[in-house]
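Researcher: Re-running this chain for the archive, since the previous output was lost when a drive failed. Same request as before.
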Amino acid sequence: MTDEHRAARARRRTWVTGGVLVVLTALVGVFARFDLARFHFLKDVLWALAVTVLVIGLGRAGSITARRPIASIVVLLQVAVASPLLPAFLSGLAPRDTGNLYEEEDAYMALMMPYFFAVFALTVAAVILIGIIGALPHGCSWAPAVVTAASALASAAAVAVVPLTDEAGPVRRVLFEVPGAGMLLLGVLAIVLGVRAERAERATPVVTERGGAEVSISS
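Model: Regenerated structure tokens:
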């Protein structure tokens, strides 16, 4: 097997596996509600697994950061910081039952505002680094940045622009579903790219040696 075939196989395995995990993450986010809300934690578990697979890669060629240290660390750190564990820990540090609600609120914001800024900064840095590295074909490396921007704008519009009226309720619900839809789109895109990598692997001739001469056969 040539290096080209190994690279194509690594891309197929990584992108299909990661894409399936991302799709499952989006589906859990949709269905793990109300009576099924106790399963919502699976969304964060699946997302962490998906990003880890896509960043590390099942083979170096499959890594969406090309295993470059800074980019890989930033992306994995973003997942760790954005998980529910850290904000839950930080909120637990805020004073409670002090008898002064303003003091409690100020303490909570003093803890959480730097956290929210850190998540924002890491998210922006992660998607930009993935885009700049360009490990995915056809400019698809910028897809995470586009989805992140669209999700942020939709969420901001749902909160700040759409009025709090019964008539605007459906519009707000649609806007709040944009991040989940974007995640589903990224998962499908990863699977499609993985399938294309598999086709490219099969179409690439394998060069072997027979009797001192090179013979090309299809894989």
